[in-house]
Structure formats: C-alpha cells, structure tokens
Description:
Elements: H1 2-13, H2 23-39, H3 46-72, H4 74-88, H5 91-106, H6 110-121, H7 130-161, H8 167-181, H9 191-208, H10 210-223, H11 226-236, H12 243-256, H13 281-311
Amino acid sequence: MSFFAVLLALVIEQFKPLPRKNRVLESLQSWIAWSARNFDAGKSHHAWVVWGMAVAVPAVLTAMVYNALSHFSLFLALALDVGVLYLTLGFRQFSHHFTHIRDALDRGDEYEARRLLAEWQDMDVVDLPRTELLRHVIEHSLLAAHRHVFGVFFWFVILSALGLGPAGAVFYRMAYLTSRFVQVRLPGSQGMGHETLQELAQRLFVKLDHVPARLTAFGFAVVGNFEEAVNGWRRDAVLWKHANEGIILAAAAGAVGVRLGGQGSEASQAEGSTPGDQPQLGHLQSMVGLVWRSVVLWLLLVALLTLANIVG
C-alpha cells in the first residue's frame, strides 16, 4: 500500500495550489513555538521535552489514528496515507521557486532571478556573478528536493513497513522544521534552554537524515554518471561543513559534471569546490532530470518490494 500512497500523493501534489501563505507550514511553526514557550523552562533536559512535544507527539498521534482507521477500512487508512503525504511532501513547495528563477534566466532577466532567489532563501545575491547565482540555485534546489521529498519518502516507507502508517513522514518533517525554526529565538523561550534546544534539534535531525542523505546520493549516482558521482562522494563530500549536505551535493555534482561549492556558499558553507564545468543555464534542466529520475528509481524499488510482499 505504501507504493500506491506515494504515487497518488505525488500525482495529486502536482496540482496543489500555491497560496500566498502556506497555512499548513504556519500551523506547524505555531505548534513548535507553543511547545517551546510552554515546556522550555531554561534547564538543559527541558530541550528533550520540547523536542518530544514538537516532533514525537504529532508522529505518535498520526500512528494512533492510522491504526484506528485500518481496523475499519484499508481505504480509510490509504486515504490518511495519501492525505498526510500530500501535506508533507514538498515538490511544489520549492519547485515553483526554481521554475520561476529558471524562467527569469531564460528571459535574460537576471535582476528578477536575483530577486526571486533572495526572496526564497532570504540572502543577499546582488553582487553574485551569474555562475555563482546558478550555483546557489542548484545547491538550494538539490537540498530542498532531498528534505522535501526523499527524506520524507524514506521515513514514510520505513515506518509504514512497521505498521505505523504515515507517522514517518510526519516525524521527519517535524524534525526538520524544528531544527530550522529554533535557530531563530522563539518568543517566550528561555536563553539557556533555547540554546540547548538549538543544538539538540540540529543534532537529532542530522542523525535522522544520515541514511536518507546517503540513499539520495546513491540514487543520484545510479541515474546519473555513476563513476563520477561515487568519486565525488568519496573525494569532495568533506569540502562541506555538514556531512549529509556534502554527500548529496558532491554526488549530484559528479552525476551531472557541474562545479558546486566554493567560498561563500550559503547553502552548504563549502570550503572548496568540486571539479566539473562552471554552472550554466543548461545545468538547471539537468538537475531537474536528475531529481525526477531518482524519484522514479525509488518508486520502482518500492513497487518491487510491495509486489514481493503481496506474492509472498
């Protein structure tokens, strides 16, 4: 059932409307802020309580609702799977930014492309050369594809196989949002506890993302230039400050033969660059193809596992 849920969610998600404000995201951020205000009392161990309330509680509640529905009807359980994936998968949450930037560059309107990138990532790109602008778009898009799609996909499949339904998708998404949201001082939170919460949320998300990041990189290698992707993974991942990001970006750079990283890399804080061609407009389309081929690859693998489970 996991395969059908993911496939339906991906199809429906492509028709998701794009309101000016993401109400679901705002609600999740409000939940994280409420958890921090009410359970962060300044002690180091309170960070665990806040993280548990912000991340674990929504996942546990999702699993309980799924198990309750599955006793009545598999169709209701499937509907919950699709609904949760619709809300947690994020192709449209970042792809429209990417598409608008690419369209602006196609028109030769670099000013608009810079404005859109600055609006998307809240960064200063006024003085960036064109190749650096393209590199930033590629890096941010690759990391967004992983965190909005592949990471969610992995944890959904794993916990779904354990009978917990879409709890994994909620778990990963909330862990990521919490790790990002607590980097900004939350209203009403205590200083020491908040700093501890920042460190804890980031550390736990890195652990949760350890396997998904490597599977994403492996997928890029399989559907791209395998030898160069693997070589880049081994050689260039250490150029990035964060290991999970470095593995994804180094493998993707090798898979399509583009140079990523370098000083001032906002997406990854890289301390060097990968070999390959300087980013060009054509590399944006190459990255889109790389991501979609990787999605198809993992869908086929899940389909085979589902078929084997049915036959067995």
